[in-house]
Amino acid sequence: MKRGAKIKAYDPKAVDEAKEHYLKGLQNITYVTSKYDVLKDSDALVLLTEWKEFRSPNFEEIKVQLKTPVIFDGRNQYIAYDLENKGFEYYRIGK
Question: Coil, strand or helix: which one is 42?
Fold first, then answer.
């Protein structure tokens, strides 16, 4: 963010907690109300939560919404989906 990154964030249950504790005082953050709206014109998806809503996404919709099909999976939730063969750059960055 110090270098000009902009963040769009969506969380179906903990957005208020994130605003108050984790993202408080940070600039360049937009909050949206849907898991696909957050991807519109974004450069990448960074998954940092394990809510049930994110477990079986429509990867074709994700690819349409993102500028580039890049996923950083902070929970290793999408390992079984063989995303590289679906045209994604896929990085497992969490446990």
Answer: coil
Assigned domain for 53 exists: yes
CATH of the domain at 14: 3.40.50.720
| 30 contacts 9 by C-beta, under 8 angstroms | yes
- For the chain, which residues score pLDDT lower than 50? none
**Domain span holding position 65:** 7-92
pTM of the model: 0.89
90 has which bridge partners?
71
Residues 6+ apart with CB under 8 A from 87: 63, 69
First to last CA, the chain: 24
